[in-house]
Predict the 3D structure of the following.
Amino acid sequence: MKSVVLVGGMGTRMRPLTYHTPKQMLPLVGSPIIEYVLGNLGRQGVTDAVLSLGYMPDRFIEAYPDNVIGGVKVSYAVEPEAQGTAGAIRFAAEHAGIDDTFLVVNGDVLTDLDVTRLLEFHRSRHATASISLHAVEDPSLFGVVPTTPDGRVIAFVEKPPRDEAPTNLINAGAYLFEPSVLERIDAGRPVSVERETFPALAADGSLFALADEGYWLDTGTPATYLRANVDVLEGRNGHHGPALVGLVDATWCHPSARVSPDAHLRRAVVDRDCVVGAGVELDHVVLMPGCVIDDRAVLSHCIVGPRAVIGAAATLEATCVIGAGEFVEPGESLAGDVRRGEG
């Protein structure tokens, strides 16, 4: 099976980390998120994928010159200008010459979706398109998808108020499309798959949806990105990425990192070339490559970008995000939705 992987977004919710790096290339316990996404697709029978690129496409192309990511053969479709989610799907699918049932996934969503089960459902309903659904506690941040008992989509409600949502089953960002869907997406203008394509298919009665109870996480915010790292550290819900060397008691340190023996680490990621000083405390923290954490600094539920320096005895609490090369003064205290770093 072939897949279109949507990776064109600017990752605004993850700034300042995404000013210089696409969000799908941010490290997840030492390996880019995109490697986890493609690795799972490969395990589900996907042999070829086309990456729909828009923002910083060279970061992907240069990182994988052999055109293989996570064991999946990849090609790249670079949009000349933003065409919306549906436009991006059409552009990438046509670029790759896709002419059979194909899978579409969002490149910043981690999941162990059972593609085979979704495909069997899709074919049994003779669907034009099928959506994978996932149950969430608060559906107001997502597209909500009420269905009939046999899975036919009644409506596609994008981000309804929490108390008005007809269901807690949301669009999980994984779809099966027949090639005929592409003909319904206008060329030459931005088209939203959520706001235009899906409602039109639902009105025709040709859109179906199936709930999946597997692992699912949108990594697009600092809080969920942190959770994704901890989930990988703990092997939660059976979701595993590339083999981890240096994982001890749900903390991972790259072999090149230098960590003081009296530092206290709990569910922490310490990437390559990081330096962690004496008396440092890290709890639910991601340190990207080249960070320096000076003596007695205390960090909890925060993210420190590449080559950033956290001064001695500084305190960072949930959910601080320190950008690449930034400096936090010794003794400084930061907490809340702090974003430090320029584009």
